[in-house]
Amino acid sequence: MTRAISLHDVSKAFTRGVPVVDRLSLDIAPGEFLVLLGPSGCGKSTVLRMIAGLEEIDDGRLFLDGEYANDLPPSDRDMAMVFQNFALYPSMTSRDNIGFPLRIESPGADPAPRVDATARMLGIEDLLDRFPAQLSGGERQRVAMGRAIARHPSAFLMDEPLSNLDAKLRNRLRAEISQLTRELGVTTVYVTHDQAEAMSLGDRVAVLRGGVLQQVGTPRAVYSLPSNVFVAAFVGTPRINLLRGLVRAPLDGAMTISLGKQFLRLPEPLSLDHRLLRVQQGREVIVGLRSEAVRIAKPAAASTGEVALTGLVEHLEFQGHEVLVHFNTGSSPAVVPELEAPRPRPERPDRRRRRDGTVLHRLRVRAGARRAGTVATLDPPGKAPRPPSTEPRVPGDLIVRTTPDIPLRHGMQVPLLVDLAHLFVFDQSGERICPSPARLPDLEE
Fold first, then answer.
1. pTM of the model
2. What angle do CA 50, 82, 130 make, to 5 degrees?
3. At 165, is the pLDDT very low, low, confident or very high (cuts 50, 70, 90)?
4. Can you say whether residue 9 is alpha, beta or left, with left for phi > 0 and alpha for psi between -120 and 50 degrees?
5. Which of 239, 282, 247 is nearest to 263 (CA)?
6. Can you tell me the distance from the alpha carbon of 156 to that of 144, in angstroms, rounded to the nearest whole number?
7. Residues 265, 271, 273, 278: what is their CA dihedral angle, to the nearest 10 degrees?
8. Strands 413-419 and 306-318: what pairing?
9. Mean pLDDT throughout 120-133?
10. pLDDT tens across 347-374, in order?
11. Do residues 181 and 33 make contact, with C-beta atoms less than 8 angstroms apart?
12. pLDDT classification of 296: cutoffs 50, 70, 90
């Protein structure tokens, strides 16, 4: 038996009333594998613990199979949790660790048949008589998973179960978890900060920031059509190129997006998404380009929808099957503040504005708070630019993915072609304005 999980405007706060989870609404279908993804401290583990009943819900409602479950004890929720630190009893063998919850649930029953069946499923039959200290990290995690599987729960709750393992073992266990949950057909909620795990495991991915749900969708939809600049920057390897741009839309000329020393000329006739950019005339925006949206080629080789740039090679990252090339195009990178920080730093309110603020202003402030703070950093008109960042400078402003057979060297001037079909444009608050927010991704393209 598997179960549906529904969260309706769920909130949780710990100290000083600061919400760790802020009005989260999420529906998880029976048998679905949902991944909660976000930086450390964004509230994803707290969501998992509220579903399990290990944390009380301050506000909002939790439904399990359509029944109100806020006050349901953890023991009555029929869920099994897999922790980051394995949580095995050191004085028990693997057999006893797996069978322990079975003996608690049914004191008079023999747990051996279910323990043996679970061990065969995980391939750990030869580890049953060993103690945790005699096992490797991967073997301990398999035993911890076996303890959860043997209970035949209605849902698995996994809290970063692979984060303490090395990269090779993580990849192997990731494939095993995917196969096991698919075979068992049990609802699974998986917490991770590793977007590679999220993209490869989940039927859907829910991205959190500062306790607020930013976007939920299939891995492909979240990657191909991020709702804001935070999601775009958090999902994808290498990280999306984010450049400061200025929209120029003269009535008697072509529309362009200035990138500093160069510009992107939008081809005529303008697409619907590009026509909508006219309202941004004279405004600074954030241009997003995935590394695969740019290729190394001469302008003569441009196909429909491609425009030319040039870049100076500053750094080469050889990856074996591909090379990541860092180009300097004379553009200014846009900043997503505190991308890896737990929560955005609250800004000090403008008291003068607050005294004579309009209803519209108050609604905008409230909407901004709902987005868990400012997503992007651009200097407003008339304001002095912020001091330069003290963080180490990343070589170049544009990373392009290419094949290792193209001869490149440091300092080389290289022609580039940008595919405008994969151009993202975000406004100053970080919300996506191109492609249009109303557009749904066509996954058949």
1. 0.83
2. 150
3. confident
4. left
5. 247
6. 12
7. 60
8. antiparallel
9. 91
10. 444 444 444 445 554 444 444 445 555 5
11. yes
12. very high
R_g (Cα) of the chain, nearest Å: 25
Beginning with the edge strand found earlier in the chain, give each strand of the sheet holding 33-37 in spatial order.
79-82, 155-159, 187-192, 33-37, 204-209, 212-217
E strands in 65-154:
67-68, 79-82
d(CA 206, CA 222): 9
Decide: 398 and 289 in contact? Cβ < 8 Å: yes
Rounded CA separation 100/94 (Å): 10
C-beta neighbour count of 268 within 10 angstroms: 8
Provide the residue type at 368 as one letter: G
- How does pLDDT run across 53-102, given as a tens digit for each residue? 999 999 999 999 999 999 999 989 999 998 888 789 999 999 999 999 89
Q: Any idea which residue has 């695969």 for tokens?
A: 292
Q: What is the mean pLDDT of residues 156-175?
A: 85
Q: Residue 197: enclosing H or E segment and its boundaries?
A: helix 195-201
Residue type for position 22: D
DSSP string, 397-416: SEEEEE-TTS---TT-EEEE
d(CA 305, CA 271): 10
Structure tokens given for 188 = 């699974």
Bridge partners (DSSP) listed for residue 113 = none
Q: Report the length, in residues, of the chain.
A: 445
**Is the pLDDT assigned to residue 411 strictly greater than 70?**
yes
| C-alpha span between 373 and 211 (Å, rounded) | 11
Tell how strand 432-434 and strand 423-426 pair up. Answer: antiparallel
Residue 330, number of CB atoms within 10 A of its CB: 15
Least confident of 329-343, 353-367, 415-429: 353-367
Separation CA 178–CA 197 (nearest Å): 10
Could you give the CA distance from residue 133 to residue 266 in angstroms, rounded to a whole number?
Answer: 62
Contact 418, 264 (CB under 8 A): yes
Backbone phi, then psi, for 367, in 5-degree steps?
-65, -35
* Cβ 293 vs Cβ 419: under 8 Å: yes
Confidence of residue 410 (pLDDT cuts 50, 70, 90): very high
- Cβ density class 269-300: b for 16+ within 10 Å, e for less: eebebbebbeebeeebbbbbbbbebbbbbeee
